[in-house]
Give the backbone structure.
Amino acid sequence: MKRLLIFSFLLFPLLYLSAQEEDGFVSIFNGESTHNWTTSTENKGSFLVKDGSLIAKGGRAHIFYTPDGKETSFKNFELKLKVMTTANSNSGVYFHTKYQKKGWPDLGFEAQVNSTHGDPRKTGSLYGVVNIFAPKDEEPYMVKVSKNREVFVYQDGAPSTDDEWFDYHIIVQDNRIILKVNGETTVDWTQPEDWTKTRRIGEGTVGLQAHDPNSVTHYKDIKLKILD
């Protein structure tokens, strides 16, 4: 009986690891350094690793996933990560983008990270495309669409809370983008056939944003699964 019990304890970690492998997600941040990530040349000190978290803190900068120091590109994927905002912080998760030395990324989409920053486009927004919108000076409404086809979904506030970790889940499959916050879908958008904007579904890597010196945002448990 004692030998059987010991065997059971030894087997459990193996079963757990197998379940992780079958899930298909691969960790792309080791919690110890920015290995496999490359920071833009402006404000390189805006990203640091502490207590298992990648922290965006400082002037505008971006850090891009570059496995083995090389540029990578993929189209269909799932990205899961944990994020924590602090008071009045602004950040974002870019995808279908590529390494850029400076400036706001020219390519790709941004999954907004913003609980209480002054920008009314809150966490869960596909920035500039479908916005989870919490304006301070507008009467409540359901949905508005601007002349340039930007969608605004009115909300009282963000689906995230400062100083609390939340789960962000980004899915891209063909011409469809889904964003989820703590398991709840905030955006389910299919790119129209006549979509002519610069930001289009294509392929690329993922990146994280340091927005401004007053914004402090934490990231951890960043996992990626490439889809067919």
About this structure: Residues 1-21 have pLDDT under 50 and may be disordered. The domain at 25-226 is CATH 2.60.120.560 (Jelly Rolls).
